[in-house]
Amino acid sequence: MSLTNWAGNYTYRAPRVLAPTTVEGLQEVVAGEDRVRALGTRHCFNDLADGPAALVSLEGLEPEITLDEDARTVTVPGGTRYGTLARFLHDAGWAVHNLASLPHISVAGAVATATHGSGDRSRNLATAVAALDLVRPDGSLRHVARGDDDFAGSVVALGALGVAARVTLDVEPTFLVAQEVHVDLPWEAVLSDLDAITSSADSVSLFTDWTGDAVQQVWRKTRVGADGFERRTELFGATPADGPRHPLPGIDPVNCTQQLGVPGPWHERLPHFRLEFTPSNGDELQSEYLVPRAHAVDALQAVRGLADVVSPLLQVSEVRTIAADDLWLSTAYGDDRVGLHFTWKPLQPQVEAVLPTLEAALKPFDARPHWGKLFADPGRDLARLYPRWDDFAALVAQTDPDGKFRNDFVARHVLR
Ligand SMILES: Cc1cc2nc3c(=O)[nH]c(=O)nc-3n(C[C@H](O)[C@H](O)[C@H](O)COP(=O)(O)OP(=O)(O)OC[C@H]3O[C@@H](n4cnc5c(N)ncnc54)[C@H](O)[C@@H]3O)c2cc1C
């Protein structure tokens, strides 16, 4: 088998991918294998989803989506892509609270890694999880629901506690969003008015290459209420884009979601890229570090100080905000965070050579690396960043004492 991740920078070492077509079949697979890992849509940039023996994909499971309007929840097989779920929900008059930049990722894979969108008041996607049906090492199915003792440790779980056969998510009535892009936001304004800028819409993303005096683009997504929507003419010195934009300068925005303030359904505005545009692989690598909101300006300054080192390897960086949550391994556990994201050119050795420098610059700010993207963690000291780390390690040891779901990533970073 020669299977790679979406970016093509990682070839899975597991010799087999099993694809059961029923939950019972999934339970049999898990019970029967000595070592097994869940595989989602392969959008991680590292070896997190890999395993020494079998991988199990949920892509063959019946795509059954169950909406419970009274409970305001929807239940999906873990392998369901957000884009598929979003269309279903919108057609039924419902929505999830936020989406990532790309709708093609699986719900269980996104949740397992604390995937997030942007928004001062918007928590990461995993916080919408109301319950999980987890296949345990012996193949039994355990329903873990909000309020259970180990729930907060079981949602962002890196695939280490079992395979999420089904995920139940909170939903809310569908809503409209308008998306605007402003260009050339002076860095001076970013540093002096960051809070006002990021709170100026429901979701705000700053796109920069860290050089020059201005952030190149600001993408702002605003929920449209009964009063309609008015485009903002001026934004702290930035001006409205005169046409649709791609986050990368000079690239045709045809695959980007609608801009210019035209209201549309949430799932056609919250991601940056359209669902119909399905890239099977990407010529890019990604890293991201989540710093406490209180350190955001200092962290931005620290990365600007490395612009000479970072920007030659960069396609673009994106700065987003994420509200605090209580999920033990969430990158926003305990406090509001700002995400400093790097979309790199596909130059892995050079990128890996720069990551320790970047991480050293961000270390004073307790930057948590995104679980699914490239990071170095040279001192193997992630534990100090997560107050509930030991509890998570204990939960893994208790749930999976024989290490059925363990892999190199988990051994290297979590159970050292
Ligand atoms: C183009 C692109 C855009 C992205 N945009 C964003 C973004 O906007 N915000 C953000 O935060 N991240 C973003 N990411 C990162 C991405 O969301 C994460 O890597 C996410 O984990 C991908 O989900 P997946 O289904 O591809 O997971 P995979 O890479 O397949 O697996 C990831 C982890 O999830 C586990 N897993 C998968 N399925 C299950 C299951 N059923 N049960 C238990 N565990 C499971 C795996 O074992 C593994 O540990 C982006 C990535 C790409 C390539």
From TrEMBL:
Domain of life: Bacteria
Keyword Protein biosynthesis: no
Residues in FAD-binding PCMH-type domain copies: 10-174
Coiled coil feature spans: none
Annotated SUPFAM superfamilies: FAD-binding/transporter-associated domain-like (SSF56176)
UniProt cross-references to Pfam families, sorted A to Z: ALO, FAD_binding_4
PROSITE patterns per record: FAD_PCMH
Keywords: Oxidoreductase
PANTHER family: D-ARABINONO-1,4-LACTONE OXIDASE, L-GULONOLACTONE OXIDASE
Protein's recorded name: FAD-binding protein
Originating organism: Cellulomonas septica
Lineage: Bacteria, Bacillati, Actinomycetota, Actinomycetes, Micrococcales
